[in-house]
What does this fold into?
Amino acid sequence: MFSSRFPRDFRPNRLTRAVAAKRSEGVAILDLTESNPTHAGFAYPPEIVGAFSDERLLRYDPSPAGLIEAREAVAHYYARRGHRVEPGRILLTASTSEAYAYLFKLLTDPGDQILAPRPSYPLFELLAAMESVEVRSYPLVRHGQWAIDFDALAAAVTGRTRAIILVNPNNPTGSFLKRDEWERLARLCAEHRLALISDEVFSDYAFGPDRERVSTVAAAEECLAFALGGLSKAAGLPQMKLGWIVVAGPDAERGPAWERLEWIADTYLSVGTPVQRAAAALLAAGETVQQQIRERTAGNLECARQALAGSCGTLLSVEGGWYIVIQVPRVRTEEEWTLELLDQCQVLVQPGFFYDFESEAFLVASLLTEPGVFRDGAVRLARFLGIPGVE
It folds into this structure.
């Protein structure tokens, strides 16, 4: 009766069940997985609410690519970061997830393949399955810092490959694309006529400058490329449901891609008028929220470094984003690590296999967590790792 696109098993995993059991017993859990900025204790400026007082939001004037004033607001967002992006290359969506769905519709037929990084956020396979598309992975390798394994990436390309997904910076490794990587990636895409989908939602959250960093492919000319962003991370407003696609690349490919994307968007017309009318004010007010997030993540990162220093848990290098990865001894499976941390210390972290790490054992924590909770959780984690003298 139902489509085969759905997972075979809808039952929650062991960690989810264990968390639910703890909470049903009234146990206070130190949740180091919080990734929702609206639950993280930030102060949102009143201008955000005031942005919805415009009477024009009561009028519906459907525009497939999005209202021009909203696209101009996104263009201004890029301009403030030193990137020139014309509004005519910006197409609005209701979310980054919808942007992926549009791009899979644009680029693939059922049975085609998309290449996605490993480790990375566990969403691509679900979104691709909804479009009857197969996801194949290419590895990121770590030699002090994370980098693309280009030999493995090239070997993963088949006659059915249509696009490569890049997450920049990666979630959860926090690694940015470098200039030499970009040159090789663009050349590979051009040679095989592959599109590049660059998920740049965390690009505003770097922990320091790096001249070799490529923060966006919005100005790409070497190959057909799509840069994705949205209010969820850019302004800490996931509830506002506004994302975007910047279309880049050679004119001969960009024009037909835009024409078809606009046709897809016209079929759904999913982006609400109120958020489009408010986009400029929301992006401007979001700068305040961004600053709070930067201060929070930097402070928690330093806290983690201090708590874990000298322990058997290694905090891996991170360049940006909201997450950290902790490598722990392979004396337990990742599932056992997380379940025992929860049971014995009431600390919740995520196992690396949630993000498709190629090997064990890694734990993932969110730097968005409120500082007091994060500090207490980091101290308990340090104690669990057997560090003498930790108070």
User: Anything to note?
Assistant: The first strand starts at residue 30 and ends at 31.
